[in-house]
Amino acid sequence: MSEYIPSTSEWVANQVELYESSGGTQGNTLMDTGMPVIIVTNRGHKTGAIRKTPLMRVADGDNYILVASKGGAPDNPSWYYNLKADPNVEIRDKTEVYKMQVHEVVDPVERERVWNIAASTFPGYQQYQNNTDRLIPVFVAEPAE
Ligand code: F42
């Protein structure tokens, strides 16, 4: 069983710790904004380690939209490469944990649709995209068969 390596970002690692240790009853929002957060458990594509990545909760029916914004940084987050290497993830949404499979949305029409859902759920995404030349990647997570 691979080990879990916490995020090198302390506030992120702390949120994961509170979210998971409370069984999803605490630490499930973005700081005090009240905006819901999910945790995506993914596999490090270099280390093989278990990685846990909090993301804004953007629902699309039974699916989730995962936005690799990283605050509008010029580079993709590491978890982007993890998901590309291994699409099998678990998503914790408060007290529920789902096995899911992700795929990057590259079709322009579909990307427009899911981006609009994401940006209306969390307006910060559009600000991030406005501030970077990087086209912020978007994944859709669907329940695993
Ligand atoms: N990030 C987003 O991109 N979108 C969001 O909607 C979002 C919401 C959010 C809400 C709450 C919260 O606490 C954090 C939130 N974040 C959001 C931040 C998100 O959780 C990540 O911290 C952020 O996106 C950066 O992701 P990252 O995977 O680059 O994490 C860094 C900090 C990190 O942990 N790096 C590790 C390190 O050691 O530097 C490596 C992690 C890793 O996956 N390593 C891979 C491996 O094999 O283990 C190798 C990666 C490689 O290619 O080198």
Order of SSEs: HEEEEHEEHHE
CATH topology, by name, is Pnp Oxidase, Chain A
Number of strands: 7
Biggest β-sheet: count, sense, barrel? 7 strands, antiparallel
Molecules bound to protein? coenzyme F420
Report helical residue fraction.
25-40%
Number of domains: 1
Present the secondary structure layout.
Blueprint (H helix, E strand, L loop, with lengths): L9 H12 L15 E7 L6 E7 L2 E2 L2 E5 L10 H8 L2 E6 L2 E9 L3 H14 L2 H7 L7 E6 L2
Antiparallel strand pairs: 1-2, 1-5, 3-4, 4-7, 5-6, 6-7
Coenzyme F420 binds next to helix 1, strand 2 and helix 2.
Structure description:
With 145 residues, the chain is α+β, with helices and mostly antiparallel strands. It has one domain (10-143): Electron Transport, Fmn-binding Protein, Chain A (Pnp Oxidase, Chain A, Roll). The protein contains four helices and seven strands; from the N terminus they run αββββαββααβ. It has helices at 10-21, 78-85, 108-121, 124-130, and strands at residues 37-43, 50-56, 59-60, 63-67, 88-93, 96-104, 138-143. Strands 2-1-5-6-7-4-3 form a seven-stranded antiparallel beta sheet, with helices on both faces. Strand 3 and strand 4 (63-67) form a beta hairpin. The protein is globular and about 40 Å long. The chain binds coenzyme F420. Coenzyme F420 is lined by residues 7-9, 12, 15, 30, 37, 44-47, 49, 51, 53-56, 67-70, 77-79, 81-82.
